[in-house]
Fold this protein.
Amino acid sequence: MNNKSVVVIGHGMVGHRFVEALRARDEDAQWRVTVLCEEALPAYDRVGLSSYIGSWDAKELALAGNDYAGDPLVDLRTGERAVAIDRTARTVTTGAGDTLGYDALVMATGSYPFVPPIPGHDRPECFVYRTLDDLDGIRATAEKAGPGAVGVVVGGGLLGLEAANALRLMGMTPHVVEFAPRLMPLQVDEGGGALLARLVTDLGVTVHAGVGTAAITEGPDGVSVELSDGSVIEAALLVFSAGIRPQDQLARAAGLEVGERGGILTDLGCRTSDEAVYAVGECAAVEGVAYGLVAPGYTTAEIVADRLLGGAAEFPGADLSTKLKLMGVDVASFGDAHAQTPGALEVVLSDAAKGTYAKLVVSDDAKILLGGILVGDASAYASLRPLVGRELPGDPASLISPAGEKPGAGSLPDDAEVCSCNGVTKGAICGAIAEGACDIASVKSCTNAGTTCGGCLPTIKQLLASSGVVMSKALCEHFEQSRAELFEIVMATGTRTFSALITKFGTGSGCDICKPVVASILASTDSDHILHRNQASLQDTNDHFLANIQKNGTYSVVPRMPGGECTPEQLIVIGEVARDFGLYTKVTGGQRIDLFGARVEQLPAIWKRLVDAGMESGQAYGKSLRTVKSCVGSTWCRYGVQDSVGMAVGLENRYRGLRSPHKIKFGVSGCARECAEARGKDVGVIATENGWNLYVGGNGGQSPKHAQLLAGGLDDETLIRYIDRYLMFYVRTADRLQRTAPWVEAMEGGLDHLKAVVCEDSLGIAEELEAAMAKHVEGYQDEWAGVLDDPEKLSRFVSFVNAPEEADPTVVFDESGDRKIPVLMGIPPMPATISQ
């Protein structure tokens, strides 16, 4: 064996990337690699550390191939740290007492959290937020403190807000202390910081900006945190997240040169002051500058791999752009975000009502994009970041205006960097597509683009589409067919089980994508109960229990109230059920009453009371008709011109229980004043003196769409006939989880084609669509009542199989205020794959 030996000290994300890059390129097997990993676990996704909370399964964060199984040239030693380097002898001594010789040494020691020298910083209730072990320690203390306990995070930057979110997910009440006058001071400006603070506060985080931490002492709950303004926070624990420092102690002890601000000093080839030693990632100070982001770290890893194989790669500089979702809030920062370039102009669009802030920094002639900040909505990041330093394709304000035209990926020059994490240009991606990469997975495999944070995936999809690639419509890896094609197969073959369908038309055993889709198709093509025999195993959590799961593992119950109508007797029963079962009640936006906080074993008893009172499931848990919202119409209102309530009740009773690709909402307004907000619904009906106007394809949500007029002046019979056709055409042809608005937009011919199909029967299928709806109406059955009448189905509704009557002790509520609020105890609720 004439291999040269390289020792890698550190096995984080960057260390792993170096080993992967070297082994992938070392076709002649020149190098034998030994990796010293101080942690017990090999490389994992430290950027996604917060995703560990909930599953508490470290395997979910493991980086692909991190054990190098089957590679005889890689020796991975977990739980073994380097304690000394002898540069003269070219050896590394490990904590296990081994001495390893090297021809090249790669320092990938990363960084460590900075802990300010505050009195009391070393108390046992104080933690840092860096490793899985850190999170395990925080979790143990949080569980001991109990739900709702206060946790303090010192530092309001990227990691600080991540840590605050972690505490929130553990059921704690987070406080964030930031010395700067705003959150994320390095990434966002004053305007963006103000909005970010408001959005974060709305999520239950208390922000203390412009103050420092003066002292930490023993307190009644754990620690008393004294702030520089004299205020005190009583908390169970404290997490330091005030920045990081390069982990360069081992290098200093070995006599390697370090930068003025720390970090192992390297040249542009990532070589240190010792020609046999290299440094990569956060521990490296490339020409004196240390970078704390993963993208520059990956670049240094690739450079060293190239150098060891005889190349001359150099560090090209770093893109410090960041895009992330903090506690559900989008934040992005790129280029010269703070307008430090002389003569720079700022174009700002702030919409406090919608919770968005956008700023572009441009040159003094407003032609060159220099940088930007996006808070609340960062959807424009993928198209804007590659344009930094280039001429803008239009007016700067239009690029961040909701109504403005956004630049497409096709307009980018070939050298524009699409994936900043891995330094992949548009040209490289288009080259891979030209050589046969015909889907996202292939582009990822060929270029590494999209394999880290995923922020560039929308741009990659655009490039695939603009290159003429026909994107695969396969539902998932188990079915080559689209949802619409599977629907036709089920109808044509009469297949009634998932196992039969996948045996004949698919492969494998299915997944959490195809199983609920097939379950929905089976339900919308027959009137079998949703939990009928083996269909029950296909359902996601909400459909499995016919109720909406909430954050603490309890369920909400929503009885149907067609058109918002409810008798006094039914209202009394709802109140009695809420009182007797200790439920929290709320009137929903769809004119119904939601009962929150029911444990799974209580659901049948609650349903029985409601069913006996003449009510049925409102299917708030299903991909189906949710509500038909109505104004009071001509029966009560002096402006009403048609009986909107009567129409709403009739429509809801007709289409209740209809399973579809996504949820469906109706609105019926009795006049043009539109009190039922019908034009914001999938189906909107608005009364006129000449009949009914039918609007379709509207929705609220993240991307609200106004419904469009399909037909006007309709009588009752024609209106219902058109809605029958429209809904069944949607159920047959839409993609998985596609609302009606994007379905209409994506349809070839758009609204004109839809009008032709529904109103003119251009495809000759109107009779078939009407017959399918008639079959649904005739076969409708209440799903709650179907459970109550079936002992086998009833047996599913228990918290513990071996103790059916026992309540789940982890279900806890905070009832100290006026409202009953669910709290978590550090134990994750059951995962839900369907939203309300």
Observations:
- The longest strand covers residues 31-37.
- The two ends are 62 Å apart (CA to CA).
- The first helix runs from residue 13 to 25.
- The chain is about 30% helix and 20% strand.
